[in-house]
Amino acid sequence: MKVAILFSKEDGSGSIGIYEADEDKFNGEIGAMNPVSMEDWYDVADWVEENGKLLYRVEPDYTISLEM
User: Fold this and answer.
1) Residue 40 lies in a domain
2) Using CA atoms, how far apart are residues 68 and 47, in angstroms rounded to an integer?
3) What is the pLDDT of residues 23-67, one digit of tens each?
4) Angle, to 10 degrees, between the axis of helix 38-51 and the axis of helix 23-33?
5) CA proximity to 45, closest of 66, 14, 68
6) Domain that holds residue 35
7) I need a labelling partner for 27 at 20 to 30 A (CA). Which of 19, 21, 43, 60 fits?
C-alpha cells in the first residue's frame, strides 16, 4: 500500500513523501498504536519512514492540505 506523509510548516513550505508499506503490518501498527493525538501520528509517520520504502519526495514551495 502507498502511504503519503505531509509535513508542512506555517509558511506553507514542507515536503510530501510517498512510501510503500506492507499493508498488513501497517494496519497492525495502526491498530496497536491507536493514534489519536498529533504526537501519536508522528509515531506512525516515524514507523512508516523506518519500515516502508520511500518511493519519492516532493518539496513544494507551498502546500495546501485538504481533508476529504
Assistant:
1) yes
2) 24
3) 999 999 999 999 999 999 999 999 999 999 999 999 988 887 777
4) 150
5) 14
6) 2-58
7) 60
8 burial via Cβ count (<10 Å: 0-12, 13-18, 19+): middle
Quickly state the pLDDT bin for 20 (edges 50, 70, 90).
very high
pTM of the model: 0.84
CA 7 to chain centre: 8
Grid coordinates given for 16: 510530501
Name the 3-class secondary structure at 44. helix
> For residue 11, is it within any domain?
yes
Domain count, the chain: 1
**Does 28 map to a domain?**
yes
CB 34 within 8 A of CB 67: no
